[in-house]
Amino acid sequence: MRIVRVSAIRETAPVDAPPHSPPFLNMAVAGYTHLAPLALLDALLAIERRLGRVRGSVRNAPRIIDLDLIFYGAHRMRTRALTLPHPRFHEREFVLAPLRDIGMW
């Protein structure tokens, strides 16, 4: 991926997380890739694994890293693995603020 824009890192209160979860750090990155959407998702998940992410049964629990694919150009899709654009991005200020930083929203 060729990265062209990176937002500031923002500390935010957890949303829909277990009680007493610590703040989360959020940012957005925009770039270009030759990978198709599902291949890009696979690459992001591989990065998470290399950095020590272990997916557990507690949804939205604190984690070492969480890479989400929010947009892929104007591409729209819905599969079991990936929905584009991300279905709840517009409801979450912790996503919208970094997107505004990089001119994507």
Can you walk through the features of this model?
With 105 residues, the chain is an alpha+beta fold. The chain has a single domain, classed as 2-Layer Sandwich (Alpha-Beta Plaits), CATH 3.30.70.560. The chain is built from 2 helices and 6 strands. The strands form 3 sheets. It has a two-stranded antiparallel sheet. The radius of gyration is 14 Å and the shape is globular.
Features:
Alpha-Beta Plaits, 105 residues, alpha+beta, single chain, two-stranded antiparallel sheet, 2 helices
Contiguous helical run count: 2
Give the total of beta strands.
6
Please give the domain count. Answer: 1
Shape: globular
By CATH, the architecture is named: 2-Layer Sandwich
Radius of gyration, whole Å: 14 Å
CATH topology (level 3) name: Alpha-Beta Plaits
Terminal Cα separation, in Å?
A: 21 Å
Fraction in helix: 10-25%
Query: Biggest sheet, strands in spatial order?
Result: 1-4
Mean pLDDT score: 94
Per CATH, the superfamily is: 7,8-Dihydro-6-hydroxymethylpterin-pyrophosphokinase HPPK
SSE arrangement, N to C? EEEEHEEH
Q: Structural class of the secondary elements?
A: alpha+beta
